[in-house]
Amino acid sequence: MIPDAERVDSMSAQQLSVVLGGRAVVDAVDAELRGGRLTAILGPNGAGKSSLIRVLAGIDRPASGALSWAGEDWFATSRRDRARVAALVEQDVSAELPLTVRMAVALGRTPHASFLAGPSRRDDEVIDAAMADAGVTGFAHRQISTLSGGERQRAHLARALAQEPRLLLLDEPTNHLDVLAQLTTLALVRDLATRNGLAVVAALHDLNLAVAFADHVVVLDAGRVRASGPPAEVLTPDLILRVWHVAATVLTHPVSGAPVITFDRPERTHP
Ligand SMILES: Nc1ncnc2c1ncn2[C@@H]1O[C@H](COP(=O)(O)OP(=O)(O)OP(=O)(O)O)[C@@H](O)[C@H]1O
């Protein structure tokens, strides 16, 4: 038996399929999303990344396959129990309610019993820390609808952090963000994975960010897993050509020694 302090919870997907419009947009996916690790879900537009993430978050149900968290059937638990475990930041969330940033971040506390009885001092502390971590303290009293795309993205991240999840799911978290905000956001969630044992799963388009921050990558193409493993091992020029149809070169950074992927200009416009 594993002592609690050393237990690393993880989500395990087996032969998971999602059917939309009569087509398997996620097709027999096997994946192990382990606590303490940042897993990047990679793949071209339409590969099935968002569809997979919504199922992992417990929002959509798979057409077939098994999904478990800490060994328990994920869909056998209640919606509220799932919300205590998993937080999702979707891409381009619109249709904002008329809420200030702080009120929106506070919504992250709703799955916790303490909050429903009226926010406790601890709830307030968690909300303040989440806003500070996501860099939105300065916008606390602004209406969320008035924020720029990047500011709003960070407010949604703060809401997810306030949820204190064990599984943090981020759909293109660097969308809209400037270079500094991209790096600080990924460094923050990477650090949460390391320090708190969180399982962090992020759909990313930038392969260099995946190399720099992810411990593990899952490459999807037309709903199927084409490769998975440590990013520097998986993201070879051959794999990038087969999946993204772009010729790439992997260089070695002259100072850090880390791999850096460069891309050739494609010969055609769209496939
Ligand atoms: N409601 C729907 N009905 C039919 N097909 C859908 C529906 N929603 C998504 N799809 C299709 O499912 C496929 C996977 O979409 P998904 O959004 O999961 O891809 P993605 O990898 O996240 O793409 P992107 O990188 O462009 O965000 C796409 O071909 C998309 O057109």
UniProtKB/TrEMBL annotation:
Named from the GO MF annotations, one term is: ATP binding
**Record key words, sorted:** ATP-binding, Nucleotide-binding, Translocase, Transport
Q: Which InterPro entries match?
A: AAA+_ATPase, ABC_transporter-like_ATP-bd, P-loop_NTPase
Write down the SUPFAM superfamilies for this protein, in alphabetical order: P-loop containing nucleoside triphosphate hydrolases
Full protein name: ABC transporter domain-containing protein
Q: Which PROSITE patterns does this UniProt record tie to the protein? A: ABC_TRANSPORTER_2
Q: Which residues form the ABC transporter domain?
A: 11-247
Instruction: Look up the domain of life of the source.
Output: Bacteria
Natural source organism: Marisediminicola antarctica
Q: Taxonomic classification, please? A: Bacteria, Bacillati, Actinomycetota, Actinomycetes, Micrococcales
